[in-house]
Design a protein that fits this description.
647 residues, alpha+beta, Immunoglobulin-like, Neutral Protease, domain 2, Serine Threonine Protein Phosphatase 5, Tetratricopeptide repeat, eight-stranded mixed β-sheet, five-stranded mixed β-sheet, 38% helix, globular, EC 3.3.2.6, leukotriene-A4 hydrolase activity, protease, cytoplasm
Length: 647
């Protein structure tokens, strides 16, 4: 059934496979080509046809750890006389493919091939005649128990201990493991879904629930979304209202704590609308995830997923919710066309997040938020990306690298810093925010590239001839393709930061007696300043007398040994590693095993890998807990440890 073109691809991929076997331990993953004209990580021929709507009929099978059912894909053809459809799949068992017509459903020939590790495969659907216009295809299939987008938890892994739990994480390219699709953000579609699940649990999706009865829930998403925003969760969940259009969902044991922690949600939404324009998604609910959720948050429309590590008890980490709310415009409404331009999602979102913080807490807080981000960026470049400086570019090349391999703080912080630089250069918020809202309005419901943003920026600001000299100052090449830290750091208000730097210098440069006698210890740091203080301390090349006694005093002085704040605990256990305190290994691993948020576990494992005596212990621990991690987390941590087999 394979044509010549397909046979050549198969041969190429076989040759690639040989190279991969020889280079198993190298950084480069397994792609050595751009898989399609629009997206290097997608096989989809989205330049020839696009999915406009999807109808899902899914049954959740906890006994088999699979989802089975049908996906009905409604295509709009962009090319006349089409003979083949290319879709992305990953470990999906397809049983039939049919075209809908006025005469009924017509079986279609299909095959799956071109498998690339950590990318997926190509489902080729052969059309019986040259096709034009619109087309509807029904695919019956079942997911794999190892589908990379799905995490199946036993009752014992939940708070309630009574019912199993399922959740998804499709970003960046994992939607292809739960349905055959054009798994590229270049394509957006609406969807309806019927979800069948055990009667004892609740089903939710990234859509509005339109009906439910025990064991069956139906959903509608009327605003077009890219495939990575498809989301599902099934578990013993309850909800509590936290605003006019918002509720928080969690297991019963966490619901009150979560409702209190995220009580500012309505304020965040109001400020975001001031900055970005009307909110179009009807609902903004939050779901507190199990500890195995690999990210801080995921901006699934109508139902943001958030890590339980945000439950600090003092709302100090709730700005992550402001970030996810901002995604309702930057990312969800206006989307990067592929993940080489991920900064158009994340840099823009951090920029809006900072503005929300500034409107609620003042510009000093906004600037401190940005400065803390720069500390995290510096740490990321020196640790996670130390061996891959090409991934510190704002626009990366994914021809030989998957989006999961490229994921880092860079598009977030370097991207938002670029936008702040542009705002300051072009006249400040009064001048820049009207442009920003107009950009979001022009490109809403679309997918864009960096050149789209650049072109509109020039069109907008060139209306005033005085801006021409300012626009000429922008070194786009350095900002977009230069490696390392941002080429220009804006003039931020450093008031809140200076206290953090003073505390970091005190502990890095002095012995215990000097520290104990310092009046600086009488100065109170709020939670966000404590986080930055520890970040700055970790940045120091040398720390005088970094002993168990000094680390213990540090913990006692600031309460780091008893805090619930995961950001503080994360940095404090890294000091244990820096001090080579083997006696604290149980505490280090306890933190690493308490959650599988990649922001936390990757640096911990990477630094343990650089400690020869600790590396075998870290690998043993990883092998014990890796099945509790989502695939994206297990895969990247294995790389950080320098091991290749995560099977």
């Amino acid at each position: 059934m394979y044509g010549k073109r397909y046979s050549k691809l198969k041969l190429t991929l076989k040759l690639v496979g040989v190279v991969v076997l020889l280079l198993t331990l190298s950084y480069r993953p397994v792609t050595t080509m751009r898989l399609s004209p629009l997206d290097p990580s997608s096989y989809a021929n989205a330049h020839e046809l696009i999915i406009r709507h999807v109808d899902l009929d899914w049954t959740v099978n906890f006994d088999k750890s699979t989802i089975s059912g049908t996906a009905t894909l409604q295509f709009k053809l962009l090319k006349q006389d089409l003979t083949e459809i290319f879709l992305d799949v990953s470990d999906i068992n397809v049983s039939s493919v049919e075209a809908k017509s006025s005469a009924g459903e017509v079986p279609l020939d299909w095959d799956i091939g071109g498998t690339i590790e950590n990318i997926g495969s190509k489902l080729t659907i052969y059309l019986p005649t040259k096709t034009s216009g619109d087309l509807t295809v029904v695919i019956s299939y079942e997911t794999s128990p190892k589908a990379s987008a799905l995490q199946w938890l036993t009752p014992e892994q939940t708070f309630g201990k009574k019912h199993p739990y399922l959740f998804s994480q499709c970003q960046a390219i994992h939607a292809r493991s739960i349905l055959p699709c054009q798994d590229t953000p270049a394509v957006k579609f609406t969807y309806n879904a019927t979800l069948r699940h055990p009667k004892e649990v609740t089903g939710l999706m990234s859509a509005i629930k339109v009906d439910s009865e025990p064991g069956v829930s139906t959903f509608r998403q009327k605003t077009p979304i890219p495939s990575y925003l498809l989301a599902i969760v099934v578990g013993a969940l309850v909800s509590k209202p936290i605003g006019p259009i918002s509720a928080v969902w969690a297991e019963q044991e966490q619901i009150e704590e979560a409702a209190e922690e995220f009580s500012q949600t309505a304020d965040f939404i109001a400020k975001a609308e001031e900055i970005c324009g009307p909110y179009v998604w009807e609902r903004y609910d939050l779901l507190v995830m199990p500890p195995s959720f690999p990210f801080g948050g995921m901006e699934n429309p109508c139902l943001t997923f958030v890590t339980p590590t945000l439950l600090a008890g003092d709302k100090s980490l709730a700005t992550v919710v402001a970030h996810e709310i901002a995604h309702s415009w930057t990312g969800n409404l206006v989307t990067n066309r592929n993940f080489e331009h991920f900064w158009l999602n994340e840099g823009f979102t951090v920029f809006v997040e900072g503005k929300i913080v500034g409107r609620l807490s003042g510009n000093a807080s906004r600037d401190f938020h940005a400065l803390h981000g720069l500390s995290e960026l510096s740490d990321c470049i020196k640790t996670q990306l130390a061996d891959t400086p090409e991934l510190t570019k704002l626009v990366v090349d994914l021809s030989e690298c998957g989006p999961d391999d490229a994921f880092s703080t860079v598009p977030y912080i370097k991207g938002s810093t670029f936008l702040r630089y542009l705002e300051d250069l072009l006249g400040g918020p009064d001048k820049f925010e009207p442009f920003f809202r107009a950009y979001l309005n022009r490109f809403k419901f679309q997918s864009v590239m960096t050149d789209d943003f650049k072109q509109m920026l020039y069109e907008w600001f060139r209306e005033d001839p005085k801006n021409e000299v300012l626009l000429e100052r922008i070194n786009w090449d350095r900002w977009l393709y230069g490696e390392g830290m941002p080429p220009v750091i804006p003039s931020y208000d450093r008031t809140m930061l200076e206290a953090c730097l003073a505390h970091a210098s005190l502990w890095a440069e002095n012995d215990l007696d000097t520290i104990r006698a310092s009046p600086l210890l009488n100065q109170t740091l709020v939670s966000v300043q404590q986080i930055e203080f520890l970040a700055q301390l970790l940045e120091k090349k040398t720390i005088v007398d970094l002993t168990a006694e000094k680390v213990a005093l540090l913990g006692e002085t600031y309460g780091f040994t008893t805090t619930k704040n995961a950001e503080l605990r994360f940095r404090f256990v890294r000091l244990y590693i820096r001090a080579r305190l083997m006696g604290k290994m149980d505490e280090i691993l306890a933190f690493a095993n308490s959650n599988f948020r990649m922001k936390f576990v990757r640096p911990v494992y990477k630094e343990l890998a650089g400690w020869p005596q600790a590396r075998p212990i870290a690998i043993d621990n990883y092998n014990r807990v890796k099945d509790q991690m989502m695939t994206v987390c297990a895969y990247t941590v294995a790389k950080d440890l320098g091991i290749s087999d995560i099977a």
